[in-house]
Amino acid sequence: MTATTGARTLALAALALVLCTAAVYVQTTGTAGGDPGTTIGPAVDPSAVLTIGGNIPPLHAKPSTSIGERDVHMNVVGKTWVQYVDVDWNGHVEKTDLLWDDENKMLVGYSNTTFACRNGGTGDGGLLIAVNAEDNTRDRERGSGFWVAGLDAGECGVPARGLWGCQFDKKGMATACGMATIDEQTADITVVTPNR
Question: What are the residue boundaries of the structural domains of the chain, listed by start?
Answer without folding.
Answer: 3-194
